[in-house]
Amino acid sequence: MHSTRKVTDDLIYVGGSDRRLSRFENLFPIPKGVSYNSYVLLDEKTVLFDTADESISRQYIENVVHALNGRPLDYMVVQHMEPDHCAMIDDMLRRYPEAKMVCSAKAVGMFAQFYGTDVAARALVVKEGDKLSTGEHTLHFVMAPMVHWPEVMVTYDEKDKILFSADAFGTFGALAGNIFDDEITFDTTWMNDARRYYANIVGKYGVQVQALLKKAASLDIEMICPLHGPIWRKDLGLLLEKYQKWSTYEPEDKTVMIAYATMYGNTENAANVLAGMLADKGVKNIAMYDVSETDVSELVAESFRCSHLVLAAPTYNSGIQPKMEAYLSDIKALNLQNRTVAVIDNGTWAATAGKQMIGMLEGMKNMTILENTISIKSALAENQLGALEALADELAKQVNG
Ligand code: FEO
After folding, report:
1. 350 CA to middle of ligand 1, Å?
2. Model pTM?
3. What protein family does this chain belong to (predicted)?
4. How far is CA 318 from CA 27, 159, 290, 310, 346, in A?
5. What distance in angstroms lies between residue 63's CA and the mean position of ligand 1's atoms?
């Protein structure tokens, strides 16, 4: 049976949610699931905006067939060719032989790569600023390369002032009937997942997200229909403000995140002692994570949120403990910038992790590495408490100042 909802009088939500998938892109844990949004516009011409992941194919087909209610499909707007949205394109093209695929030139090439067939004869290739009238509605195409892939475009419906934003303004999390931001409490229930989605999926492309935000600022937008998560029709400013910060790598909260790797609890102990000192000095909302226990996607998201990072890790095989190294590689790949970082290392005979962590941090943009580093020899020693206190002082002054 279909499970659709009306977005406006002539726009129907035909997407669905997957609560079984354990990892998005087979990489990021999604304990709350994920939605794959898609929309049908019933104008003089009919339009389908993107498709869905094949995991929800049965529900998806029911929804599209119901929404079209026997009408042919005239246009399928393909904004993004990642398989979480393009998996059903081939099926739709076969099911609706009259439909034209409206997309960027790059998407045509990607279609051939994914499906092994040439869709050029059925493609209506659009470029920046092109418009398509469907009757009462005029769709305006805006290129958004690298948000999140190079072929991405977004679409603005001039009549209803709706931005179909592709992956932008999306989030992890399944939808449960409530598909609009004013039907859920996004800030408290969804924001952590939205940040984790942004930081890990498009975090690397801050410059390109900024370019899209500037284009969007010239449009009169009353509703944002993303490909994941709720539709924004009430508090658009909430996520726009976050996107402004995330895409310019500006921290949201002035506080300290301590991420530690520990083998037998000795490096963890130093992290605990430092956290207590920071709290004594008035630092609030300190976040602390064991990098072996917390998924790296959460560590990345928290690093996008917090202004100051303390990274503590033992030396392992003459290198950095592997989970810490993976986290550092990730925040580097995702272009994290503008953070103040303190480093603590540990080693029973040759502590070199600190030096190597600093080396990785120095390869990142606009990172301030505190000179006050601490090197533990197996376990924190009494005579190192002064140095730890000095580090806590420096961090507290910056955070509280
Ligand atoms: Fe939701 Fe980049 O795909």
Report:
1. 44
2. 0.97
3. In the N-terminal section; belongs to the zinc metallo-hydrolase group 3 family.
4. 28, 62, 21, 21, 11
5. 21
170 Cα nearest atom in ligand 1: 1
| Ligand 1 pocket, residue 85 CB under 6 Å | yes
Asked if residue 163 has its Cβ within 6 Å of ligand 1, the reply is: no
Q: What is the pLDDT of residues 186-219, one digit of tens each?
A: 999 999 999 999 999 999 999 999 999 999 999 9
* pLDDT at residue 44 in the model: 98
* Closest ligand 1 atom, residue 148 Cα: 2
- For the stretch 83-98, pLDDT in tens is 999 999 999 999 999 9
Question: Mean pLDDT by 10-residue block, N- to C-terminus, for the chain (401 residues)?
Answer: 98 98 98 98 98 98 98 98 97 97 98 94 97 98 97 98 98 98 96 98 97 97 98 96 98 98 98 98 98 98 98 98 98 98 97 97 97 97 98 98 89
How far does CA 82 lie from the centroid of its chain? 14
Determine the atom of ligand 1 nearest the C-alpha atom of 166: 1
Give the pair of three-digit tokens for residue 349. 């005979």
- Are residues 268 and 262 in contact, defined by beta-carbon separation less than 8 angstroms? yes
- Domains in the chain, start-ordered, CATH in brackets? 5-247 (3.60.15.10), 257-395 (3.40.50.360)
Could you tell me which of 275, 258, 261, 395 has the C-alpha nearest to residue 324?
Answer: 261
> For 358-369, what is each residue's pLDDT tens digit?
999 999 999 999
* Paired strand residues for 18: 34
Beta-bridged to residue 103, according to DSSP, are 125
**Identity at 168, one-letter amino acid code:** A
CA of 41 to the centre of ligand 1 (A): 21
Could you report the per-residue pLDDT of 306-326, keeping only the tens digit for each?
999 999 999 999 999 999 999
Is any ligand 1 atom within 6 A of the Cβ of residue 168?
A: no
- Averaged pLDDT score across all residues of the chain: 97
